[in-house]
Amino acid sequence: MRKKIVAGNWKMNNGVQETEKLINEVKDSISILDQKNVRVIVAPSFVSLTSALENAKNSKIEVAAQNMHQEKNGAYTGEISAEILRSIGIKTVILGHSERRQYFGENDKLIAKKIDAALANNLEIIFCFGELLDQRKLENHLLEVGSQLKNSLFHLKAEDFKNIILAYEPVWAIGTGETATPEQAQEMHAFVRNVLANKFGEKTANSISILYGGSVKPSNAEEIFSKEDVDGGLIGGASLIAEDFVAIIKAI
Ligand code: 13P
Description:
Strands 1-2-3-4-5-6-7-8 form an eight-stranded parallel beta barrel, surrounded by seven helices. The chain is α/β, with parallel strands linked by helices. It has helices at 16-30, 49-56, 82-87, 98-104, 108-120, 133-137, 141-153, 182-200, 202-207, 218-225, 242-251, and strands at residues 4-9, 38-43, 61-65, 92-95, 124-129, 164-168, 210-213, 232-235.
């Protein structure tokens, strides 16, 4: 059975103390939940990762990084490698987020290199992809997402997908308050699963968790999560408020 996953991408928010506080609030609120098939992941900033791991110990919460560099090591001032993440006990990394694509010039080819580096270091990946508003308006969303998947994932082997979680994040829905309708999310998730089935086989496609991200809130989470091919969410803004994030976890 596919795992259900709720992941919080905390982006460039929260210092160490705020991170610890938020983790402990979430931890306490979900400790009574019985969610064997549900994973809860949070991705704080790099500087808070060590204390986040410490505070999440013996709880349901897993800690992920938001990004990493594609090279093994070397003269890349300000960057963090897969090996450095592993050295503090990080096991999961978000790659290909639209904010990385938009503000830091990351493209499919670079993201493919990051994916390879992460897999080579036994890191699990939350791979983000999604179309821009114009592409959606022109009804090119499936074409665009198909091309992102092809360019960043098609060189992999089926077995690599054991370590990959997908996150469909339509760019027009991120931080805008505008959410894809459950039907739009389902259409895309089914399309993605179909693309993967054609390339890597039904078994791989059916075992991969595909999350939806983009203005998920307590008020819309349940309806989005109820769709057959939506296996959870990657949450931005709402994951910074313990009560909201917990409500979204409960919705799954
Ligand atoms: P929002 O939930 O704030 O729209 O952000 C979504 C996101 O980018 C998660 O990675």
